[in-house]
Structure formats: C-alpha cells, structure tokens
Amino acid sequence: MSDRTPAGQFLDAAIDLLQRVRDEEADAIAAAGALLADTVADGGRLFAFGAGHSSLAAQDLVYRAGGLALMNLLAVPGVVGVDVMPATLGSALERVDGLAAAVLDSSPLRRGDALVIVSLSGRNALPVEMAVHARTLGVRVVGVTSVAYADHTTSRHASGTYLKDHCDLVLDSGIAVGDAELTLDNVPAPFGPASTVVTTALLQAVMATAAAALADRGIEPPLLRSGNVDGGHEWNGRVLEQYGDRIFYRH
User: Fold this and answer.
1) Where do the DSSP E strands lie in the chain?
2) Residues 117, 167 contacting (CB under 8 angstroms)
3) What strands, in cross-sheet order, belong to the sheet with 169-172?
4) pLDDT-flagged residues of the chain (< 70)
5) What is residue 62's predicted lDDT score, i.e. its pLDDT?
6) Which intervals hold domain SIS (predicted)?
7) Which has the closest alpha carbon to 156: 65, 210, 95?
8) How far apart are CA 218 and CA 159, in angstroms?
C-alpha cells in the first residue's frame, strides 16, 4: 500500500528520480567514470566545484571514506556553501562576470586535470564561465545539471548559453525546474527539494565507476577508508603520502 504522507510522497519521488538517472544516464555515468579514471591513470588531478546547495554534492566527493583521495574541492570564497553572511551574497556572486576566470587562474588546475562542475540550473555566469575557461586551460569538464532549465529559463550569461553547452560530458540530474517535488492545496509554494539526494547519488555512481575502471586496468584506485574503523588512519596515511603531490586539501 502506497504511503501518501508527505514524507512517503517525497521518498517515492526521490526513488523515482534515482531510478530515472540509473536508466537514462547509464551511458553518461560510464563515460564520466572512464574520463576520471583516464585522468588518474595519466597523472592528472581531480577537482569538483558547486555553488550554494550544489556545493553539497561536490563536497561529498572530497576527503570521503570510500571515495577517491585525489578529488579536491575548488573553492570560491563566499560561494561554496551557505555559510557566507548574508546567505544571499552567495547567490549574487554566482552572477558576477569574470569571477570564474580569476578563480581558475589562481588555482592549481592545469592541462590534463578534470573538473566536475555541479550547477542545478546551469544558467548563472559562474558555472558557465568556469566551464569555458577550464577548457581553454586544457582541463576536461564534467557538468552535472538539470538540462530542463535550458528549456524553461533564461541564461544569466552574456552568451545566452548554459553549463551544459560547455562540457566534455554532461550528466542530467532530471530535476524539475524549481527543485520541489511536492505540492499541497493548503501550502502556497511547492516544497521538498530532491536535487541534493539525486546529484550526490549520481556523482557517487560516477566515482564507483572510476574506481572499478582503474582496477580493471591493473591500477589500485587511491581510495580512502573511514577513520572510524581499525586501521583506517594508517591506510589513509599511506594513500595521502603516495599521492601527496595531487592532493590539495592538506595544505
């Protein structure tokens, strides 16, 4: 029997979205995993970026038990997360022209690296310019976005383009415009955002694919273990030392 409570409806909606990305994005997930594995095998470094709540999925990849140790967070002051005060400043900074280029030119990214850019709408200047500029530097870009926004919103970049238009690979989260899964007659606005659940799962599927792809090539994937299991700190110490020149969250 179906659970028609708001909680049950939200969980059903999230499950439906996860099944959709599993089925519809399987080829893109495989390609993105292969791209990251190629980068690691070729000596490149991995970076992830997201603004506002999109940063949550990016942060989930970094220094993560069960994740690749080489994934670094590309931080943009005032944008990565909602800890900036006032919180609305982060949204404003996403629309500032030129910020992405300044960040990338001051970052350790270089030719041969890979950058995962997470932006639900993909319409703001920051993710668009970040993808464009990263590719001019020779960095391969994986965009994670809801492609539907390009059909139902106006780009905030001068070019009129979206994140999806400037990536080597695009993963479509399938999130509806507005990021709210539920409505009730007595609630004036839609509610129940599912983008974090879906985007995080989508990216962890990519990371799992990358780890397995490296193992298939005879390369031990540089995975971290939980520091809360016996031997975890020792294991992580070995990995961090071995790949220290490709890890930037320790400095």
Assistant:
1) 46-50, 71-73, 114-118, 140-145, 169-172
2) yes
3) 71-73, 46-50, 114-118, 140-145, 169-172
4) 1-2
5) 97
6) 36-220
7) 95
8) 44
